[in-house]
Amino acid sequence: MSVHGAAAERGRAESHALLIAGGMRSGTSWVSEVLGRTEGVTHLHEPDNPWEVPYAARAVAGLGALPVVDRGTEPPPDYVRLWDVAFGAARGFLPNRRRPLHNSSVPNRLSPSYWAYRAVPYEERTKALDPGSRVVPLRFRLATRFALPASAGPSLDRVVKSVYVPLALEWIVDRYGPRVLIVRRHPLDVLASHLKLGWGGDRVDDRGVLPRIERWGSPPFPVDGDQFDRQVWLIGFTHSAYDELVERHPEYFVVDHEQLCADPLAEFKTLVDELGLVWGAECEDYLRASNRPGEREQTSRVASEQSGKWRTALSPAQVERAVELLAQFPVARRYAELA
Length: 339
Description:
339 residues; alpha/beta; 5-stranded parallel β-sheet; 16 helices
């Protein structure tokens, strides 16, 4: 289990909260679904997802794909409120209600805000979320105006998951003190998943990009590149940002998706123990039930088939171009195929 020993030795449950983070399509949802079923915890899936959670869209409008929040700075009030509620604050006029121990990752489709936001055209959402944007379309404003932050209820024992925090993680940890688990996956497998879904390639605020690519000697965002190049760039940038955080914070836990896939039941039990959580029957039931073919955003997959999918999912030309780009990012040092 590739968990940092320093983190495991710090004792159990310094904080009642665990924040699971990693790049999109790195297996973070699979991990959070299992850990969110450990005994006595509540589970909150991506409270900051601006494509699914109307309040999150309002909170990150103009902040880009990966909000930049440096330590010691004060982000927009709605962004602060989003994380206050995610880590246990009351939502406001409507009190939190204690939910079942495991909360579904499906957004609240009973909320009028959810359906109003779903009706906002993709182009208008993109325009509002673009970094530095001062153009917030009227339908976007109306759809998100009365939305409430996503909440797991008042319990302090919680598992929260996000794929949008590599440039805000230290601020979150400083403010709320969760333990952190970073989930890593081979960038080419991530790319194969992005291509299948048509995801990725969104712009990141230059305030977060420029100092990092200068340190790394990496290329700037390919504004004039095609969708494929932008997808590869975002994967290289995001995974390198997480790697840099891990190097700076040996107290963070780290797990590799490939290792979990090799023997899910045994590896997850070890991970749960390392994290000081309590394995329950629901964890095992979920693992067994989800070990089957699944489509798109579903977390059901045949685990043994996930590692190395890029070898058949990507064409030789795609592999060649992806390696050419990824080799310019620090994350390439961890993978022989990219170095």
